[in-house]
Design brief:
- With about 375 residues, this protein is an alpha/beta fold.
- It is built from 17 helices and 11 strands.
- Strand 10 and strand 11 form a beta hairpin.
- Helix 13 crosses helix 17.
- The longest helix has 24 residues.
- The relative contact order is 0.11.
């Protein structure tokens, strides 16, 4: 059944709401041939924003080739190179002869080959006949630009979970080669190849772009602001009324928005459950039941997270939930049994590496998952409301 409450796939078209400013900024950067980074917590709409922006660009007449490189399971350099090369080649070609031609003309002098037997038996369009070296990395990373130049059309490569490249021992070599190519690229080229580097591990992406400062002044960061609550409430209320002829109280929708901190994925999930529970009017009891269902689904994941935390890490989390921002203050260290300011720094770093919490530009703590934050307060620490 067609529903406006989509949470199981990317959202584009009529069900995409908000993000007007981000769409305009992203589109302008891509049209100008600028590289982009986007890093936000899981399920905050990064890929939906990217896909909707690309859809808008095509709809307005902008022509480009597009490759999506899903790096979720990248653990080695070879994993990355195969993922990248395969995605780029499949976006530009479709037959064995075309694949063979790309390798022969664009990857000559490397250890990359097109193996027709591997293609016939396993569908592989790119293979390695030796351990890859720096020349192989450089030539493969140049492939989108060479294809863009040969076909006379801009090329956009979208990396999903870009931070996973750091799992490879040689990730610094890859970053440095990418930096060099970005510096040497002619920005007056009418057919540039641009990268969108997207990642859901916020602290890992911050480590790359903000702390180690790779790609400094070469990549533009597009930050996702919170979607306006009024737009979300309108989306929920109209979705029930127009789609199912049901009524959803605006105050209930506002309460859910505040609980989920305007996270559209959680809001759509809640609305979908409420739709299944209701016949004509969504009551507060139904919404409470829907929230309980969501907690039941996610609680095993939350329990796994807290079981992986040390006592000091849990103490700092409790302090963050209590509104503490100066964790190294002597009274805070004593109250939450954090031992010392040096230990506080270690605990903060550990929580960041585990992607449980991040810190904003004011060094204030931000729990990355709003439902996890609610669960911690209500069920784990049992903090009175």
């Amino acid at each position: 059944m067609d529903t406006p409450f989509i949470y199981d796939k990317y959202v584009t078209g009529k069900n995409f709401i908000g993000r007007r400013t981000e769409r305009m900024i992203l589109a302008n950067l891509l049209k100008a041939g600028e590289h982009v980074s986007i890093y936000e917590p899981p399920k905050t709409g990064k890929m939906s924003l990217i896909r909707q922006t690309l859809y808008d660009m095509r709809d307005s007449g902008v022509q480009f080739m597009l490759a999506f490189v899903d790096m979720m399971n990248v653990r080695t350099l070879e994993d990355f190179l195969m993922k990248f090369g395969t995605s780029v080649m499949k976006s530009a070609a479709s037959t064995p002869d075309e694949y063979d031609s790309i390798v022969s003309s664009c990857l000559e002098g490397t250890h990359f080959v097109f193996d027709r037997m591997q293609f016939m038996t396993r569908g592989e369009v790119l293979s390695l006949n030796w351990t890859p070296d720096r020349n192989d990395i450089a030539r493969l990373l140049e492939l989108p630009q060479r294809l863009a130049a040969s076909k006379g059309i801009r090329y956009i490569v979208v990396f999903k979970e870009f931070q996973n490249l750091m799992n490879a021992d040689e990730y610094e070599d890859v970053f440095k080669i990418m930096e060099t190519q970005m510096k040497e690229r002619d920005r007056q080229n009418p057919h540039p190849a641009v990268f969108i580097m997207s990642g859901a591990m916020v602290n890992a992406m911050k480590l790359i772009f903000e702390e180690k400062r790779y790609f400094y002044r070469q990549v533009n960061h597009v930050e996702l602001s919170q979607v306006d609550q009024k737009e979300i409430i309108e989306h929920i209320v109209k979705g029930f009324l127009n789609g199912m002829g049901k009524s959803f109280d605006r105050n209930l929708a506002m309460g859910a928005c505040e609980l989920f901190k305007a996270n559209l994925w959680y809001m759509n999930h809640l609305a979908a459950i409420c739709d299944a529970l209701s016949k004509g009017f969504v009551t507060e009891a139904m919404m409470t039941e829907a929230l309980s269902s969501m907690i039941a689904v996610h609680e095993p994941r939350f329990v796994s997270v807290v079981n992986d935390l040390t006592d000091h890490q849990l103490s700092l989390m409790r302090a963050a939930l209590d509104g503490v921002v100066k964790f190294s203050a002597s009274d805070v260290i004593e109250k939450y049994h954090l031992n010392s300011s040096a230990n506080v720094r270690r605990v903060k770093d550990a929580l960041k590496k585990k992607e449980v919490i991040t810190f904003n530009e004011k060094d204030e703590p931000v729990v990355l998952d709003p439902l996890f934050e609610y669960w911690l307060k209500k069920f784990y620490f049992e903090i009175p409301e």
